[in-house]
Amino acid sequence: MDLEINKNAKTEYEIIRHTKTNSLAMLLIEILSRSVHCHSDLEIGMLLDGNIDLVIDNEVFRLKKNDIYIVNRYQPHSFYSNKSHNKIVIFLINHALYKNIGPDIIYKKNHIVFNKEYNNLYKTVFECAMCYASDLPFTEMGAGAKALDLIYQLSKIANPIIDELSTKQSRSKAKHLQRITDYISEHHSENISLSDIAQLESLSTYYISHFIKKMTGMNFTTYLNNIRFDHAFSLLTKTNLRISDICCESGFSDSRYLNRLFKEKMGMDIQSYRKNMDKIELPLTDQPYMTVQNHISQSKFMSVLERYYTESLEE
Fold it and tell me: N or C: less crowded end of the chain, CB within 10 Å?
């Protein structure tokens, strides 16, 4: 389904820190909103509770409890939760884990809907997660082995292809996108245009316009205004600046336009928000305006995983 997703946070090239092992990281997390980003790791996640929308290549995947998602290396993606709470276990698998024993795989299927026929797959997800969370000796080896098993099982159901060229092209596009979004983020308060981006990349404005739309799901003007809104929102919540000064700092030439944009995204005007800021739970709308996510501490990993694993066995 094609849909123009309204996201304003900066598109990021994310550097993953693999703290438990050199090639595997795991997160237990609640995501309210995660802006467009990409990284060099293969990302595999399973929704333990709630629901969330995953956006890849301008396509929306509506994830529900026990669904599994796959994000290929260098593939830009974002999340938004429609104000729903969720818990997700996420594996970030560095290419180093499997490059010497198999080809670089691109999965054509990003969303695996819950199906009892895939019980072994779900069991492997929990086993991998609990190995990673364990403090016992050598469990990092078990986590790596389970991650490889996960990749293998998904290769049977997620329509994998072996295409080294596509991976190189995806890497090139990710870096290309990073340069563009970095420039927009650094110069958003100025009067920048598509022509400035085209000149920066030595490409035509036509190409840049279509590239930004394809990679972020929105046109240049919408993306720029979302970056400006993010900065304005930060100034509004963290400073006592006047609205006119916030407009100047964030790149908006008209306070009435900012107020209208604020009302569309937040459900109230700026003055009302400032008066009631301490009482408002975010997010207020079904469209993400920034990255909002809550990490579960590593000390709680095992107890949370065991609870959801027990629930999954009973279902």
Answer: N
> Distance (Å, rounded) from C-alpha 28 to C-alpha 312?
17
How far does the chain reach from its first CA to its final CA, in angstroms?
30
Q: Encode pLDDT of 180-224 as tens digits.
A: 888 998 999 999 999 999 998 898 999 999 988 887 778 899 889
> What burial letters (b/e) apply to 177-214, b meaning 16+ CB within 10 Å?
bbebbeebbebbeeebebebbbeeeeeeeeebbebbbe
Residue with tokens 């009435």: 256
Q: What is the pLDDT of residues 261-310, one digit of tens each?
A: 888 877 788 888 888 877 665 544 444 445 566 777 777 888 889 888 88
Q: What is the DSSP letter of 163?
A: -
Token pair of 244 as six digits: 């006119």
Q: What are phi and psi of 290, to 5 degrees?
A: -165, 175
The angle that helices 139-157 and 119-133 make with each other, rounded to 10 degrees, is 160
pTM: 0.71
What does the longest C-alpha to C-alpha distance in the chain come to?
61
d(CA 315, CA 119): 11
Label the pairing between strands 42-50 and 86-93: antiparallel
Question: What is the distance between the alpha carbons of residues 305 and 315, in angstroms, rounded to a whole number?
Answer: 15
Domains of the chain from N-terminus onward: 12-162+291-314 (2.60.120.10), 188-279 (1.10.10.60)
d(CA 30, CA 85): 7
**Pairing state of beta strands 24-38 and 42-50?**
unpaired
